[in-house]
Write a structure and sequence with these properties.
five-stranded antiparallel sheet, four-stranded antiparallel sheet, mainly beta
């Protein structure tokens, strides 16, 4: 849940995640394992499960939640579409001593038997202003940022044609400034090889006062 594209919530709100999986392979899956590293902004002790499709076991070690469905005997989707789907749902509280403005991001890796993991989409919840103006985040005028995910460089393109100089600022999820670059081209390249894997916000401010934002994902193998 959450309001708007940035999924704004209150500091007191519990966050609920639903991790859905489906066996789209060519044979029955006998075990499914979900691995989810929980944000340091969340209270791990408060985690409670609110729904599940199959019997499961779980453990939490160093903020890493591992949910195991074994055995699950999950048929492939071509054999039985309805029975090929499963899920786990849990709720978790935010830490009481979190900063005033921040973003909580979450994704999980799903393992079917001994196959390589499949990564879910990243869910984002925004609390406060997060150093970026939420009205700008909801604007249809978005920076174009590619590739997604990226590991060495990201290309950043303004959604308008301009000859103005402008500033590019990269923020982490806590709103801390990571990079500040002055550019004079509609298409710019930013070296992000020294950034940790994760989600970052980027903001462009032109001399005439226009602001454009977006986010990007850094993922190192």
């Amino acid at each position: 849940f959450g309001q708007g594209e940035s999924a704004r919530i209150d500091r007191e709100d519990e966050i609920e995640y639903r991790i859905r999986f489906q066996n789209t392979g060519s044979d029955t899956a006998f075990a499914v394992v979900i691995v989810d590293t929980l944000s340091e902004l969340l209270d791990v002790e408060s985690l409670r499960f609110t729904g599940n499709s199959h019997d499961y076991s779980y453990e939490i070690i160093d903020r890493v939640l591992t949910v195991t469905f074994n055995p699950i005997i999950l048929p492939d989707s071509t054999t039985n579409l309805e029975e090929s789907i499963g899920y786990i749902r849990f709720a978790i509280k935010q830490n009481e001593d979190n900063p005033n403005n921040y973003v909580v991001a979450n994704f999980a890796d799903i393992y079917f038997d001994f196959n390589p993991p499949i990564r879910t989409n990243t869910e984002i919840r925004t609390i406060g202003e997060v150093a970026l103006n939420n009205s700008e985040l909801l604007s249809t005028d978005r920076l174009k940022v590619f590739p997604v995910p990226a590991s060495e460089y990201v290309q950043v393109q303004l959604p308008i044609e301009t000859n103005e100089e402008f500033n590019l600022t990269v923020y982490d999820l806590s709103g801390r400034t990571i990079k500040f670059i002055q550019v004079n081209s509609n298409l710019s390249s930013i070296n992000i090889s020294n950034l940790n894997s994760g989600i970052y916000f980027i903001e462009a401010n032109t001399i005439s006062g226009k602001t454009f934002t977006n986010k990007f994902i850094v993922q190192h193998n």
